[in-house]
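Practice record 12: protein with fe (iii) ion.
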Amino acid sequence: MLIIGSHVGFKKDQLLGSVKEALLYNANTFMFYTGAPQNTLRSQINDNYTNEALLLMKKNNIDINNVICHAPYIVNPASNDKDKQEFAINFITNELKRCEQLGIKNIVLHPGSAVNESREDAIKNIIFVLNSVLKHNINVKILIETMAGKGNEMGITTLELKSIIDNISIKDNIGICLDTCHLNDAGYNLNEFEKYLDEFDQLIGINKIGCVHINDSKNEINSHKDRHENIGYGTIGFETLINIIYSTRLEKIPKILETPYVGKNEKEKIYPPYKYEIDMIKNKKFNNNLINDIINDNVNNIK
Ligand code: FE
Ligand code: FE
Ligand code: ZN
């Protein structure tokens, strides 16, 4: 069975609101940040919302094991600054505790950037931070995301990810989150995705993949840019993304859309595309009028 959802909000009513939003998109999973992705301000988890959310998930056959949390991207586990390392360890540990309280089993983490240091040192720092977090023995798996290689981003090749994972002491609590836009921008040819998986399996093991972010890319292969595009509207293309989504080797892995909102113009991108993209994916049929359909439906609904 296809397990598909998108990035959703986590606002005043917390997980309950996230589930409700996912259901609007006809999704059977979802991904959320426990607060704004750009900052580390976090509010107290309210168990009443969580319990209502769990009931609603049960009613709609959303398996919490497939639900993903995403850590904010301003923590830098690769930093060589002792204060920043300590901040990252504390923040990620608390984020894991929040996941545990919510019943969430998987959290995606960006490995960070090598700032004023070699990539070798950055890898050592990532390993140190991850092992420091994992020794608290919180029962939540950290999924390191494959990155596009923008600036000095780490985690852009399978080998680099391997060199991190191989040195993690508690192997059961570490995994990988693939991101199709990032893989494309990092230089992997996704028309040969099964080959990519073969290599990944040899070096790391396919069983380590815990989530796949499904995004098209605004930029060419190997551009190291990281700008997501709507499904079928970028350089990766609909067919290739469908092949990845339905790859039998990733059947039980949740697929999460992180594509941009759409709108009439650049300034007004206010409509989520997820319901429509999930529909295209389920039907395996590209809609070349997607953006207009979304805008028209939303405008008609408001009338
Ligand atoms: Fe991410
Ligand atoms: Fe991603
Ligand atoms: Zn991205």
